[in-house]
Amino acid sequence: MISVRDGQNRILDRVTNIAPPELVAVVDALDRVLAEDVPAPFDVPPSDNSAVDGYAVGSGDIPREGTRELTVIADLPAGSVHDGTLAAGQSIRIMTGAPMPAGADTVYPQEIVEREGDRVRIGPLDKGANVRRHGEDIASGTVVVAKGSPLRPQEIGLLTSLGFVQALVHSRPRVALLSTGDEVAEPGSVRKPGQIYDSNRFALRGSIARCGGQVIDLGIVPDRREELRARLLDAASMADVVVSSGGVSVGIYDLVKDVLEEIGGIEFWQVAMQPGRPLAMGSIGPAHFFGLPGNPVASMLAFMLFVRPAIYKLAGRTRLFPATFHARADEPMRKKTGRREFKRGILSYAAADRTWHVRTTGPQGSGILSSMVVGNCLVVLDEERGDVEPGELVEVEPF
Ligand code: AMP
Ligand code: MG
Fold it and tell me: Which residues form the domain of 154?
């Protein structure tokens, strides 16, 4: 038996062939992973500008007390620049975002002045009020998006605000996927007695797409040695990663194990975890291989724990593991020491004690896929801990 952590480390040690970079349009770069640090090419904002709609003045004209009248010499909408320099006794009507005219350093919000014809009456105000300084958001040269970051809508927005139209991102790892088992039927086909519809391949397709992989769906392989071997070799020839589900336990028809021993450098692990103990990992030719357990919850969980970090690493991401939080258990949970257990949980916030609470989804069998649907998190119970009493804090990982 190896621990979850051990398994993850062994896998990540092998994954060193990070996907090569490619240049893509920023508009197509959502969820891609940046392959280089991006420094700001100029100050943001690029010049001092008004933070409000109002009147720009030179601080020399601000009265210490009482009021003073200035002449409004121009209207400055956002996007235009005033050519001249403001003289003493003059003011310019300015819109939010418009660059400060030369000679002006302070803006009166329009609500606090009195305007009559081309005259505006102003009172005391701090010098520099309501002006956004050039570079106050980002100084030129600062790294604004770091290498290894996935590009979310806000990174896309920031990149375009800096004028970029292309981004250097990692290409997406190709992940070939197949299900094994004579009992597994294609959804949409007629299911023979004793057959179940394939769910693993579809849950895994989604999981792969979500973590940035390109799915190559190779369908269902029957429990026949020659066919399995041919399909796995074929898969390895077209992908960076091959993922199969089923056939890695000790059943008499669990052929993945046998076949892999012939074609690749594969290790078979018993991972000290529940659900999802058996796992095969290694390589077939140049491709990394993961043989996930057949039970639907076990296969999704093994994916989350072992395949996702590997795909993240291949895809160039710096951060490989999700954040976890603590929540108060609302019910007792059975837990065996010596292995890591993952329960599907329902996490909710209680206003009464201002704390996050969690309970399990009910029966936790590794074939109960509905527990992943009803639940909104994993409850992660460490190797060392035993049974959980109500009220204890437990670690949770939201889906
Ligand atoms: P195995 O490890 O191949 O013995 O599979 C363990 C359990 O998972 C069996 O009950 C299988 O029927 C089930 N199973 C295997 N593959 C799939 C699949 N693709 N979709 C849903 N259930 C599966
Ligand atoms: Mg099977």
Answer: 24-41+144-170
Domain presence at residue 138: no
pLDDT at 261: 81
Q: Please tell me the total count of domains within the chain.
A: 4
pLDDT value of residue 194: 95
Give the model's pLDDT for residue 265: 81
In a domain, 293, yes or no: yes
For the Cβ of 195 lying below 6 angstroms from any atom of ligand 1, the answer is no
Decide: helix, strand or coil at residue 264. Answer: coil
Q: What is the mean pLDDT of the chain?
A: 95
d(CA 258, CA 163): 55
The CATH number that applies at residue 164 is 3.90.105.10
CA of 279 to the centre of ligand 2 (A): 13
The pLDDT, as a whole number, for residue 277 is: 87
Cβ of 366 less than 6 Å from ligand 1: no
Asked if 78 and 56 sit in the same domain, the reply is yes
Confidence of residue 78 (pLDDT cuts 50, 70, 90): confident
Ligand 1 neighbourhood includes 183 CB (under 6 angstroms): yes
CATH of residue 117: 2.170.190.11
pLDDT at residue 297 in the model = 97
Do 187 and 292 share a domain, yes or no? yes
Selected residue with higher pLDDT from 152 and 268: 152
Query: Which residue's CA lies nearest to atom 17 of ligand 1?
Result: 294
Residues 237 and 357 in one domain: no
- Cα–Cα distance, 274 to 256 (Å, whole number): 21
Q: Based on the fold, state whether residues 246 and 188 are members of the same structural domain.
A: yes
In this prediction the pTM is: 0.91
Measured CA to CA, the distance from residue 12 to residue 308 in angstroms comes to 11
Tens-digit pLDDT profile for residues 338-387: 999 999 999 999 999 999 999 999 999 999 999 999 999 999 999 999 99
pLDDT above 90 for 312: yes
Q: Which two tokens stand for residue 276?
A: 């999802």
Residues 112 and 204 reside in one and the same domain: no
- Which atom of ligand 1 lies closest to the CA of 220? 19
**Which ligand lies nearest to the CA atom of residue 294 in the structure?**
1
Crossing angle of helices 225-238 and 255-263, rounded to 10°: 60
Instruction: Please enumerate in sequence order all residues whose Cβ is within 8 A of that of 185, keeping only pairs 6 or more positions apart, or say none.
Output: 191, 192, 195, 196, 197, 198, 220
For ligand 1, pick from 199, 204, 259, 295 the residue to mutate: most ligand atoms within 8 Å of CB. 295
Is position 64 within any domain?
yes
Query: How far is ligand 2, taken at its centre, from the CA of residue 195, in Å?
Result: 11
Residue nearest to atom 10 of ligand 1 (CA): 295
